[in-house]
Amino acid sequence: MSVVLPGNHVPAQHVNLKLGPGLQQLTTAGPSRIDSTVIATRAGELRHSTNRSKWWIESNSRRYVPAPQEAVIGVVTQRIGEGYRVDIGSAHPASLDGLAFEGATKRNKPNLKVGCVVYARVSLAHKDMEPELECFDAQTRKGEGFGELKGGFIVRCGLKMCRDLLDPNHYLLPLLGGRFPHESAVGLNGRVWVSAKEIKETIAMVRCIEAADPDGGGLDAQGVKSFLETLDV
């Protein structure tokens, strides 16, 4: 792990290289070949996956910058023709085609209304274009959990917290799952959707996520356990 500043070169190389937030690939054409370099566009900690195919910059930010392949939680704000405009917390709203769902056809497709919550994947992200979403896995063309999220509650937290929650070794979601059954979806855009059997359990989950968020209480596992004992669940 290392700290980088905007403009710093990053040694990101892989046959299936995928760049996340804070990184940009620049291509230059020389006399005999085309060279590409990766530079940082924001300050933060440089991170990469175990096989070094995915690289991103971790920074404590609340403004989400869309990146391809990332899962996000959005709220439908407008219906436009056969598609929707979705708020994902970025500088510009995203577009979601009505056919970008598993098994959707012109005669059989979801009928989302303003205010509906969707779990989607960023299919296109470019600084000069409106981001685009789709509600299926790009490889399998199956829903894989993407689609409309009914009921539940959205809790907003720092982008770092969302990435932490997606780590299988992070303590929080397994800890809460051991306390009461629930469903959850984590978006890399600073939003987490949770739904438990009872409303008071959903509220307890929301408060625990807020308490564990580094931007909030920053509680560790023992701290969250103690905090849970103070709640009426």
UniProtKB/TrEMBL annotation:
It is found in: Cytoplasm; Nucleus, Nucleolus. Keywords: Cytoplasm, Exosome, Nucleus, RNA-binding, rRNA processing. It comes from the Eukaryota. One of its GO terms (molecular function) is RNA binding. GO terms for cellular component: cytoplasmic exosome (RNase complex); nuclear exosome (RNase complex); nucleolus. Residues 17-63 form the Exosome complex exonuclease Rrp40 N-terminal domain. The lineage of its organism: Eukaryota, Fungi, Dikarya, Basidiomycota, Agaricomycotina. Coiled coil: none annotated. PANTHER family: EXOSOME COMPLEX COMPONENT RRP40, PNAS-3 RELATED. Residues 152-198 form the K Homology domain. One of its GO terms (biological process) is poly(A)-dependent snoRNA 3'-end processing. Belongs to the RRP40 family. This is Ribosomal RNA-processing protein 40. SUPFAM superfamilies: Eukaryotic type KH-domain (KH-domain type I), Nucleic acid-binding proteins, Ribosomal L27 protein-like.
